[in-house]
Design a protein that fits this description.
3-stranded antiparallel β-sheet; 384 residues; 12 helices; 10-stranded mixed β-sheet
Length: 384
């Protein structure tokens, strides 16, 4: 470890698999856009995040989980935001937050590992595709925009592929001394490959050197860390942040409240840290699948299907909930238990990303989500 944080290049780790999709490059001018993907690992409860309080069946089927929405921010006649998300509610009022409901990837079998693989690769089924849609996005951007970093200990599947990316994460190890770092720099000075990697690592260390409190391990500090990595003109333009703890089989009410407070703080820290760049930033929050509509016997919910997704940022055409609401009556549920998905997550992401970066939607869908390429990307999510 170089420091109490680690900076790792996929080129040195050898985590890139072989047989990747061909590079697709579209000629266009560079922009100042930033994009952040926050993945919610564990299947976040969309109904617990954005309550369908206007649905006549909501209060009865959700039981104690419906109670919190009495004090949440009312989004429209149907939906209310969980009260833990105060900063997000403010962004919604400013037109900088958009929520999608009754949404899902093509995956339907309720396994975390398989569902996350489909979400991150953009395939139609688990392990069908060998690289990630976020790595493929780098192939459709100009070279000076195709820089990405994972705020995680290792590079997540969504960022793996033929394009080199980096990962940067807090470390529990003590700080390395300046003397040791200088000696390592001298050791690598004559190595053509390692000298460049070491220099990049030291530059990143300097960028984040004053984020020592709590080692950057809490949600707000992670958001601030990501913003610091994205802010320089020569820094990353795309970042991915991993969050866990969304698998709320028991005691969901308190656990989900804590999770949502953390997510809300992370988004707020991104906004504060990016400053004026927030106006050209889009943050996507998505999970592998949703949870059951009904509460189980331990105050939690089990693996489901339909859920919610979120967009934040000054680039987002927000202040609305996008949904073709299927209803929560027993006959309306998917397999008599889950929120029925009526919107494709692939089309939602494809529409948001293509508009944000100025890539033609059909070409973006073909590159990022080849299994869903015939599906039209959802338009009108981003300010143009």
């Amino acid at each position: 470890m170089l420091d109490r944080r680690s900076f790792l290049s996929t080129g040195t780790l050898g985590v890139l698999a072989s047989a990747f999709a061909p590079r697709i490059a579209f000629a266009r001018a560079a922009t100042n856009k930033r994009f952040v993907f926050i993945i919610q690992r564990g299947a976040a409860d969309g109904l617990g995040t954005i309550g369908a309080v206007g649905d006549p069946a909501f209060a009865g089927v959700r039981g104690e989980l419906a109670a919190d929405f009495a004090t949440g921010a009312k989004l429209d006649g149907m939906f209310t935001l969980h009260p833990a998300m105060t900063a997000s509610a403010g962004l919604y009022t400013q037109g900088q937050a958009l929520f999608a409901h009754a949404i899902a990837s093509p995956y339907r079998d309720r396994s975390h590992f398989d569902g996350q693989n489909v979400l991150e690769t953009g395939g139609a089924s688990a392990y069908q595709v060998r690289d990630g849609w976020l790595n493929r996005l780098l192939g459709v951007l100009p070279a000076d925009e195709a820089r990405a970093i994972a705020v995680a200990a290792t590079v997540p599947m969504a960022l793996r592929g033929r394009r080199e990316v980096a990962s940067y994460a807090p470390s529990s190890l003590p700080d390395a001394s300046d003397d040791l770092l200088q000696r390592v720099a001298m050791l690598y000075d004559g190595d053509q490959q390692l000298h460049g990697l070491w220099s990049e690592a030291m530059a990143t260390r300097q960028l984040t050197s004053d984020l020592a409190q709590d080692g950057g391990r809490n949600a707000a500090a992670t958001g601030a860390l990501a913003a610091r990595l994205l802010k320089p003109d020569t820094g990353a333009r795309i970042a991915m942040i991993e969050t866990g703890g969304w698998d709320t089989h028991t005691g969901q009410r308190g656990r989900l409240t804590a999770q949502l407070k953390g997510l809300d703080a992370m988004v707020a820290s991104l906004q504060a840290g990016l400053g004026p760049l927030w106006a050209d930033t889009m943050v996507l929050v998505a999970t592998e699948f949703g949870r059951t509509v009904a509460v189980n016997g331990t105050g939690g919910t089990d693996h489901g299907t339909g859920t919610s997704a979120m967009l934040f940022g000054g680039a987002v055409k927000g202040g609305r909930v996008v949904s073709d609401w299927p209803g929560l009556a027993p006959a309306a549920l998917y397999e008599a238990r889950d929120l029925k998905p009526t919107m494709q997550l692939d089309a939602f992401i494809g529409g948001a990303v293509s508009s944000h970066f100025g890539v033609e939607p059909e070409r973006a869908m073909a590159a990022l989500f080849p299994a869903s390429a015939k599906t039209a990307a959802i338009k009108g999510l981003v300010r143009v």
